[in-house]
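Minimal example, chain plus 2-acetamido-2-deoxy-beta-D-glucopyranose.
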Amino acid sequence: MKAVLCILSILLALTATLVTGNQMNMDDSSKKPGYGKKGGGKGGKKGDCANSTTSVPYIQAFSPQIKAHTLDTRAAFVNADTTQGDWQFQGKVFRAWETQQPSTVPLNRFLTQVNQDYIFSTISSVSGYDANGVVGYVYPTQICDSVPLLGAYNQAAGDHYYTTDVGEHNSLTSSGWSDAGISGYVLPLHDCSCKS
Ligand SMILES: *[C@@H]1O[C@H](CO)[C@@H](O)[C@H](O)[C@H]1NC(C)=O
């Protein structure tokens, strides 16, 4: 009987270690809200924030040829159009940084050759998609007056569309698009007194 109790208590101790270990892993991943996951909560010390004055606008463009929306700086699209693209500007969507800043992480772009669909996320890999570069730097959680960059997915067309406008996102999800989660946390356009 004593031996059984002893084995039981060893098992309990092992289980406790495993549970604690899992919680640690969960804490780690919640710092990096990925594609399709809700993340964050407000917080962050002001001192850890990136300088909003040095952020730049990111533009959404659409290619009729490949029926795809994508995000980048205006200069990146100008350059792509001059060489081979047919990207039409759809307007500014948010502000972020072109180089790494305090508390920011890369906003990765992923592309699937299957139907030329682009995905944006702070996670480092997306199943079925190839890494296609870093377009900018954003916050991994909702800190420093940032807002969620919301993704919507049109499965029939194989097209992802991104917005910080909750109303616009809701309009799309009520017209057949699915919610593709939060890509990262960006600065809203209207909160900045920057020139561009
Ligand atoms: C933010 O960047 C601007 C422009 O480079 C600079 O003038 C300002 O001093 C910076 N602010 C801080 C808090 O570093």
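Residues 2-30 form the longest helix (29 residues). DSSP finds three helices and nine strands in the chain.
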